[in-house]
Amino acid sequence: MAGAVEIRDHLTGVRMIVNADGSLGIKNAIGDVLNIAGTIVSTPSGVQSVSITTPVTFPVTGTVTTVPSGTQTVSGTVTALPSGTQAVSGTVSAIPIKDPAITGTYMFNLDSIAGVAGANNYMSLYNPLASGKTLILFGVFISCGAAASSTIVVPIRGIRANTIAAGTLQASSAIAKFSNAYANTVAEVRTGGPTAVLDGAMFASPPANNTNNLVVPVHAVTFPAGTGPFLLAAGEGMVLNASSGDVDLRWNLGMIWGEM
Hints:
It is built from no helices and 16 strands. It is mainly beta. The strands form 3 sheets. Strands 5, 7, 10, 13, 14 and 16 form a 6-stranded antiparallel sheet that branches.
């Protein structure tokens, strides 16, 4: 085996032989030679360590989605749900809403009601005994004109009252709702001289005086902030009353109330 190279293991006596033609062989301690030809394939087991020297950076195509941790740098616009008190710039519009305890708000108006020479209840608002509700009087609106010359100066007054009856009971369809989703009002609105037991007076609104076709500007009666609501419990009401008057006067009367 001229030109062969042997590599010997001195402990076992086994030699690795590199033949002159480049082939490999193994010679055991007693001199037997086993030549090796072809490819030796082994299947590794366990965890293998692989060192990759090139390329240093691996290119990636497509979209890679990861769950970040720690602090991330963000560019562009970030929208967050604010908490606490926020500073607002520009114009802010406030739209008042109804107190949720109020189940409905209503308005009634009657125009050109002819005056009466004697004492008269021109209009009433009454909360029936069995209504199960409390009425809140929000405001009363009064104006007056004269169809002919009148010298009467006696005003219409708003007066608390009870035991209100007779006159003309207005139909529910004649009473405006602030929202058509509300139920019909439990209140009774009467015109045409209803009867009533009068209590304390609240306000007075003057008539037109002396000049034909004169119209007194609308007198809007509301209640000062901080005084609390003007309430009418079941069995209570109010009337618009004049102790005397003139048949030439023409009254325009309206009321706004709520229920809870």
